[in-house]
Amino acid sequence: MKAQIYSVRTQSFNKISLALLLASTALIWSRDAAAQEAQICSTRYVQTFGSSTSLPQTTTSNAAVLGPALAASGEGESTYPYGYDAGTNTIIRGAGYYYRLTNPRDHQSWTGWLDATDHTGDTGGYFLMYDGYMAGSVAYSYEFSGLVAGSSYSASVWIANIFNAAAEDDVGGYAAPNITVRIVNADTDAVVSSVETGNIPSASGPVNGKLPWTQYSFSFQASPSLTNARLEIVNNTNAPYGADFAIDDVSIIGDCRPAPPVAIPAHPVPANSPLGLMTLATSILSLGGWLIRRRRS
Ligand SMILES: [Ca+2]
């Protein structure tokens, strides 16, 4: 009798232990899978440069039309100084400056620049505008880290020539913008991947009210030696006049494909043993999670 009680207790203990082991295995799998999936999908940077509905709605050519300079962190950086003089509260005009605007025509009432809006489409949506200067100058950069080796990423930016080809004072003496968009290894500065715009032609008017935006995009793959990267938008023109362009909707998106199922061990174990049940449960949970994530992706 005593032996039977011991036996029942032992069996109950074994069942409880097995249930706890299975539960903990499921928790560990769930935690690890969630962490892995979160890590793979962690890179998602989309920069619209914001918007404002309180700006003057007429061409005023004063500093009130300017949005703020790029924030100290989170919005990227520029080697160009911001074209604003806080002392006199005026726009600084000239080659080598950048501006956050909703319309190039707001910068000055010169018809040589298009009267057109941003790419995002927000009311009062901002873009960054550059008075291009010096070949090789980095107009915009954004650094990001934590890339997952083996995962794919796509980089994209919309760029427009802001010149108005129909303007009477567009005498053809202005250089077309010519830009490189590239990803560099932030640890070594080596170029990983890039796309060239070539000479971007000017348009004779807005396109549905917007600047004549063109998307430039490419993909790249992270590796053990590429876990920190930097997106750079580089001006390729030395001309003193022209090379005036705008950028908008910069994005870097990680490939969020689900991880493959956990491999079943090569050496089978008895299915009715605790280890066999754990292995079977882990495999079923892993495969089920993978199928659910595939269905969602
Ligand atoms: Ca925008």
In short:
The chain is an alpha+beta fold and 297 residues long.
Detailed description of the structure:
There is one protein chain. With 297 residues, this protein is of the alpha+beta class. The protein has helices at 2-40, 274-296; strands spanning 44-47, 84-85, 90-91, 98-101, 127-131, 138-145, 152-161, 178-185, 191-199, 214-221, 228-235, 244-254. Strands 1, 4, 5, 7, 10 and 12 form a six-stranded antiparallel β-sheet that branches. Helix 1 (2-40) runs parallel beside helix 2. Bound molecules: calcium ion (CA). Calcium ion is lined by residues 48-49, 118-120, 125-127, 248.
Reconstruct the topology from this structure:
Layout: H1 2-40, E1 44-47, E2 84-85, E3 90-91, E4 98-101, E5 127-131, E6 138-145, E7 152-161, E8 178-185, E9 191-199, E10 214-221, E11 228-235, E12 244-254, H2 274-296
Antiparallel strand pairs: 1-12, 2-3, 4-5, 5-12, 6-11, 7-10, 7-12, 8-9, 8-11
Helix pairs in contact: 1-2
The site of calcium ion has 9 residues, from loops.
